[in-house]
Design brief:
- With 186 residues, the protein is an alpha+beta fold.
- The protein has one domain.
- Helix content is 23%, strand content 8%.
- The chain is built from 3 helices and 4 strands, in the order ββααβαβ.
- It has helices spanning 48-64, 82-94, 111-122, and strands at 2-5, 43-45, 100-102, 170-173.
- The strands form 2 sheets. The chain has a two-stranded antiparallel ribbon with strand order 1-4. Strands 2-3 form a two-stranded parallel ribbon.
- The radius of gyration is 18 Å and the shape is globular.
Length: 186
């Protein structure tokens, strides 16, 4: 699942999305894989209280019949996430530029419920935007190589469309399985 947060207009141009710098960038977001000793250096683990609060929020959302299109921050009340959300915001805006959120028991939720949790946490980080001209809230990524033998099992830069993403957008991804995934690099 992917979601973009905060609105900006991206125009297809040959101009780079960011300026080219002549000097090295000295900022926590200018990292390499060697900067991390282990996933603990960039991951935030959900604790038991946070998992209980998420489960409780999901029960309330389901009981109220709220779907993804109607889900707002006030529907996803998870008080124990407050400090964690602030740490995520700090890391994304001023730190390394990303956070890996771990320990959500994905096997206990349906795909739709995982989408609601993903969107609900996102309501604390920004304003969700449509993923397409059709109004999709979440975009689902799927490997079609078994259904369509013509498609390659993995994507490469050669066949990924390069889309400039404004620096004010927060792009988030959720992986609901441990299966390997292909990622396009822009």
């Amino acid at each position: 699942m992917t979601a973009n947060l905060q609105a900006r207009t991206a125009q297809d141009t040959d101009t780079p999305a960011t300026p080219v710098f002549a000097a090295p960038i000295r900022h926590p977001s200018a990292w390499t894989a060697a900067d991390f000793g282990s996933p603990a250096d960039y991951a935030v683990d959900l604790d038991a209280a946070q998992l209980r609060d998420i489960a409780s929020a999901m029960r309330r959302i389901k009981a109220a019949g709220i779907g993804l299109d109607g889900l707002q921050r006030e529907h996803f009340e998870v008080p124990s996430l407050g400090g964690m959300v602030e740490e995520i915001r700090r890391q994304v805006e001023d730190g390394r530029g990303f956070v890996l959120l771990r320990r959500l028991p994905v096997e206990e939720y349906s795909k739709d419920e995982l989408g609601l949790i993903f969107w609900g946490i996102g309501t604390y980080l920004g304003r969700g935007l449509s993923q397409s001209v059709m109004g999709d809230r979440l975009g689902h990524v799927k490997d079609f190589s078994r259904e369509d033998r013509v498609r390659a099992p993995t994507a490469t830069n050669r066949n990924c469309r390069r889309i400039p993403i404004p620096a004010t957008w927060l792009v988030s991804y959720a992986c609901a399985t441990r299966k390997r995934a292909a990622v396009c690099h822009g």
